[in-house]
Amino acid sequence: MGAHVLIAEDDEGQAELIRRYLEHEGHRVTAVHDGRAAIDAARAAEPDLVILDLMLPRVDGLDVCRVLRAESDVPLLMLTARTTEDDLLLGLDLGADDYMTKPFSPRELMARARALLRRRVRAASPVHAIGDLLVDPLRHEVRQGGRPVECTPGEFQLLVAMAAEPERVFTRRQLLEHIHGFDRYITERTVDMHVMNLRKKLEPDPRRPVTLLTVYGVGYKLVDAAP
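Structure for DNA-binding response OmpR family regulator, as requested:
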């Protein structure tokens, strides 16, 4: 069954191109061309995926991202002509799940959209417990020592993957497959950013992690920090 995808892109030609590709894969598409309309459409229709241009009139894409992430865990794929690392990290900090720079390959865009939609409809999994850390995929909740831990969708999916196999060492590319379902070198930085943010939320001292560990030269693993 197709998903409902919201495209927020001020370039109407670009929006129409993305629409055609999505509809070819059986999805229902709503396209809007400014940030205010994007917020209104997301609230009204509750889409399964939002493809969001960063440079939107009326309300820019970063502000749209802030609003949508405060109200929903809908997957957000950001598009932009900006190419600086600061823009990438800001988008991820605000809760975007993925980020593509223009010009982009429509086929790659579809691959990333499919990955985010698969994650959205993934079957419910049991609650994972690692020491006092609980990760509940069905309720989309993380708790540590009984207290709730707020996570972005990307951070949450990284935790789900690692919590399902505690002590396993994951490479960055393996984690990207769990989060995004595709392989591209530049996005390995995404994993590092998620790990850094999760350590701030989970570790007593993020500079000396005891739960989310780095295995140098390989990747990361999640362990029970209890003695």
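The first strand starts at residue 4 and ends at 8.
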